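Suppose you are handed only two things: the residues of a chain and a line of SMILES describing flavin-adenine dinucleotide. What would the bound structure be? This form records exactly that question and the answer produced for it, so the two can be stored side by side and reused later without any lookup.

QUESTION INPUTS
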Amino acid sequence: MPFHAPVEDFRFLLEKVIGFSEVTATARHAEMTPDVTDAILTEAGRMCDEILAPLNRAGDLHPARLENGVVRTSPGYAEGYRAIAEGGWVGMAAGEAHGGMGLPMALVTCVNEMMGGACLALQLNPLMTQAEIEALEAHASADLQALYLPKLISGEWCGTMNLTEPQAGSDVGALRTRAEPDGEGTYRITGQKIYITWADNDFSDNVVHMVLARLPDAVPGTKGISLFLVPKYIPDAEGRPGEANSLRVVSLEHKMGIHGSPTAVMEYDGAKGWLVGEPHGGMAAMFTMMNTARLGVGSQAVGVAEAATQAALAYAQERKQGRAGGTGTIVEHADVRAMLARMRAETFAARAITLACAKAIDLGREGDAAARARAALLTPIAKTFGTETGINTADLGIQVHGGMGFIEETGAAQFLRDARITAIYEGTNGIQAMDLVGRKMMDGGEAAQALIDEIETVAEAARAEIPDLAEPVWQAAETMREATEWLVAQPMAERFSGAMPYLRAFARLLGAHYHLRAAQAGDGKRRRLAAFYIQRMLPEQAAHIAALRAGAEPVMALDAGDLAP
Ligand SMILES: Cc1cc2nc3c(=O)[nH]c(=O)nc-3n(C[C@H](O)[C@H](O)[C@H](O)COP(=O)(O)OP(=O)(O)OC[C@H]3O[C@@H](n4cnc5c(N)ncnc54)[C@H](O)[C@@H]3O)c2cc1C
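ANSWER OUTPUT
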């Protein structure tokens, strides 16, 4: 089943739902006229349909492998990567000073989603490099920027993020990798990192690792972490990769999915590294990378949801089974129709949330403090809801296929296997939800309430025209307002036990809000999809809120002994 990048949906969302015109009204993005935006989406979509999507299965069947210390990538990946790099998509978000396209995050998010939907395992490579570019732009010295940014932006070199160690996963502060000053203004990095995505490849001239490590005088925990740039080959002043650095890929993991993406154990043995940002300021610099990557992971999973939905719909329109009526295919059965509708409606909702988050990032960069707070609030929701949508939609896609969904050749199973990791890396979804109810509510819920105000205003305005859709959204906003007031009055233990239900309830409301806007601005098809979401899916918010309000007691009263058989 060929993949079709959902260019029309992006156009509609940008123009009619999320208010992209506020971004193009800024001086920085004034040249992003509808024609230019259209050309970018169309061109990226074409590459995804014609070049990347055909590689998806090859990566699954022929995983990246380690040969004599060098990673050999899946068939066709080198050509696919070249298309991404030559199209300028690696550096699409980067500033023009070093050769980037300077696209707004809202457009970058569309392109990342399309590439993720076409071939998630390969798209992870430019996603890591994009995040590294952003961190270097924000925190590296002018010399490092001049040497590394042009190569990373052009895609000649690739980037990685090295946080995780065996004892330091979610608890990044437990990492032990050491960085010793070598008296030449640089550092010697020693330690082992695990699960490093695209730690090596056979198609770029260099791989530039961003490594978190501790200086000798570091305090324990996250406050004692610094960030270092550690290239595979040390470049000369002209940027020609030279001497090999003291680092190596020890092994590659055998994984449930994303087989085309090499996931490596890395050994740094006194490797030469350059400090990025302040000593002990590594987490601040890393957060620049991680926030971009979090939104990127949310949107790559929405891409998988899109691909799974397209495949399931195509299958359902061909498969004949039972007295289906109409076309005689299973799409006529109410249960199958409900599954497909859920897949489509959820994909739209999650896509809208990622784009709204991206738009807030764009406006935040213009110095708009409220937009910055909005972006901070939406990032964990975009990551968690986007990835749950990828997983749940891929799972439904298998169900629509029946037995064939369990048979690998349809590709339905691969969507689920590939999407599953997205809820785990870049901070597990549990950690994201804790971030939402903890750090992101340090403002007493102000950013959340401002968003709820907006949702109510839209619902009130829609009441006269579509009361059956507007009223439930307004009610759900009120429910969320009360839940938010309740949440911020709770001690942290209560908040954490209800973190996931709160996040899911908020996402349901946001999804309903964007569907309502789509119903107002779109045709009958948009309105029918909105009605499905608001009438069949929004009511799930009530269950999440009930779980939230039950508090910590029913969760923590069960000790590990109670859970044993
Ligand atoms: C395929 C793949 C690619 C990856 N790519 C990279 C990469 O490029 N770079 C990199 O640095 N890392 C990478 N990772 C690592 C990834 O980010 C971690 O696996 C992830 O952060 C979780 O850490 P962990 O595996 O140690 O799980 P743990 O931290 O042990 O978590 C186990 C469970 O406990 C929960 N948990 C842990 N701490 C808390 C807490 N304080 N409160 C509540 N719940 C908690 C988690 O949510 C999770 O459900 C990758 C991992 C995989 C599998």
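WHAT STANDS OUT: Residues 161-164, 169-170, 195-197, 255, 263, 421, 424-425, 427-428, 430-431 surround flavin-adenine dinucleotide (CB under 6 Å). The mean pLDDT is 97.
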